[in-house]
Amino acid sequence: MRGTMATKTRRKTMAGKKNGGRKARSESHATPTPADLPRTALEEKQALLAHHVRMVARGLTHGLFVSGGGGVGKSKVISETLAAEGVLPVLINSHITPLSLYAALYEHRQDKILWLDDADSMYSNMPILGLLRSALWGTAEGRVVTYSSTQLSGVPGNFEFQSKLIFTANAIPKRNEAFKAVLSRVDVFELTATNDEILEQMDVLARGGFGSLDAAACQQVVDYIRHAGGNRQLSMRLYESSLRKVEYAIATGTDWRDLVRSQLDQLGSKDRDGIPKPLDTKGHDLRCMALAVEKFPASARQQEEFWCESTGKSRATFFRVKKQFEAQQQEDNQ
């Protein structure tokens, strides 16, 4: 497999030389889906999020809260949509104190969009939540924000806030009534994606190739992630980083599957509370074996190739797991 991918890459390079030496256009995971292809399920969700962001940019709502796990495109959609609307947001994406947030709200109080990006730690701070409530909902006098502190310097103790807010988090904070009060003042959108939806998106992106890799090589990597991923929680961030590892592996003569597998091993599945837990590797190995036997019932060699590719494990391990699988099948049939 490693030799096949390297050969295809060399052919692609040679084709570029025949084309007057012009270098093929490098494509990344941000390449738009071809117009003649229908949107994927994830793209449909991202398009709906873009509408919500657009409404904030056009002044139809004061604020938007977006939640969702990492690597599903929250920040990408928000930044690209605001840019398309000609909006340069005021980005706040690190720790901030209530006093600093108050000063930032005052400085950008008119006709701006403040974007609190993945600022989960802020949402348990009661003074910050109080400022957000005031900035997002007001009375007949407007959205008046107040703050009392001896440290105020050059900033009034109250002002009318006429800008808008977008804030994001990986998850909606639980058992936080003060934060619920903030959410009641804004539009709320949850961007989530199942592993099947993420893999569908990867399949589409693979058609455009990546860097020195052609479409077939990219699809080979996506298929490996599909089979070796097990019940790990996948994200779109895995796509580009995996392909860069493949490019490195081809250049250095390394087995790219080992590199991609090492990255997959850092991911975990999630329990009902959303907390990552270790992957059941034995169960995953047996599921891959069942799939190998189903796909190639008459060929042990093809079963071995499929299983080793799917798990990244050795031929010796294949035979050991197959023996366990057959013993399990006998027990189930008794």
Write up what this structure looks like.
The chain is built from 13 helices and nine strands. It has 334 residues and is an alpha/beta fold. The protein folds into three domains: 2-26 and 208-276, no CATH class; 41-190, Rossmann fold; 281-333. Strands 2-3-6-1-7 form a five-stranded parallel β-sheet, with helices on one face. It has a two-stranded antiparallel ribbon with strand order 4-5. The longest helix has 19 residues, at 315-333. The radius of gyration is 25 Å and the shape is elongated. Residues 10-33 and 270-280 have low confidence and may be disordered.
Q: Layout of helices and strands, plus pairs?
A:
Blueprint: H1 2-18, H2 41-57, E1 63-67, H3 74-84, E2 90-92, H4 98-107, E3 110-116, H5 126-136, E4 144-146, E5 158-160, E6 162-169, H6 177-183, E7 187-190, H7 195-206, H8 215-228, H9 237-252, H10 256-264, E8 269-270, E9 276-277, H11 281-295, H12 300-311, H13 315-333
Helix pairs in contact: 2-3, 4-5, 5-6, 7-8, 8-10, 9-10, 11-12, 11-13
